[in-house]
Amino acid sequence: MNSLSPASIALVLSAFFCASAQADEVAVAVAANFTAPMQKIAAQFEKDTGHKATLSFGATGKFYAQINNGAPFGILLAADDTTPEKLAKEGKAVDASRFTYAIGQLVLWSKQANYVDGKGEVLKTGDYQHIAIANPKLAPYGLAAMQTLDKLGLTAQVQPKVVQGENIGQTYQFAASGNAQLGFVALSQVMEGGQLREGSAWVVPEAMHEPIRQDAIVLNSAKDNAAAKALMEYLKGDKARAVIKSYGYAF
C-alpha cells in the first residue's frame, strides 16, 4: 500500500487548515416574511462559498430591540428600510453596506379558494369574523395593511375583526390555520415559483401603501467577518435574485 510522504501530508494539512481559515460564519436576523427564500439562499450560499449563515427569523422591531441589548447578530435583513438606516445613524451598523435586497408585496389572502376576489371587495362584503394583521408598530407589513384600510375607508368597519399577529409569520399562521378567514400577509408566504400555493388572494396595489423596501445592513460586530461580506454580495447575485423573484418580490 502506498503511503503519503511527509511533504504530501504537510500539503494536505496546509490546504485543509487554509480552507478552514477562509470559511467563516455569520448570524443573520431575518424578517419573518423572508423566511422561505432566505432558507433556500442560505443553503445555496454555504454550498457555493463554504461560509455559513445561521438564521433567526422574527419581527424587525424586535430585532432592533435585541440588537440594542447586545444580541450577537452580524447582519440584519429587515422588513423595512428605516430600521437599518436608524442603526447606521446610531453607530451600530456599517452604513456603506446598506442596500435594498427586496421590495415586498402585500396581499390579502384566504386559505379558502375563490373567497378573495381580484379587487379585494371581500373586505366590504364578506361575512368573515376575523382578519389577521401584523402589529403595525413592529411589522412593516402590518403598517402597510392599516394604510390600505385607511385608503379604502374601511378602518372603522374592519378594526373590530382584527386579530393581531406579533409578526408577519404569526399573522400568516392565523390565516393558514383558519382561525382568521382573511389575512394581510406577505406575497412571499403564499407564493412559490411564481404561483399561488393555495387559496385565493388579492395583491394589494402599491399605491395603497408606502413601499415596503427591505434593506440589509452589516452590524458593527461583523464588519470584518468574511462570511458577512460574502453573503451581502451573494444577495446581489443572480442565484439569490432568482430565488427572491420566485417568491413575488421586486427589486
TrEMBL record:
Against Gene3D superfamilies, the record matches this protein to: Periplasmic binding protein-like II (3.40.190.10)
Identify the CDD domains for this entry.
PBP2_AvModA
User: Cross-referenced InterPro entries, in alphabetical order?
Assistant: AvModA-like_subst-bd, ModA, ModA/WtpA
Q: Which UniProt keywords apply?
A: Metal-binding, Signal
Provide an example Pfam family for this protein: SBP_bac_11
- Tell me where on the tree of life, at the top rank, the source sits: Bacteria
Leader sequence segment: 1-23
Family, similarity comment:
Belongs to the bacterial solute-binding protein ModA family.
Name the record gives this protein = Molybdate transport system substrate-binding protein
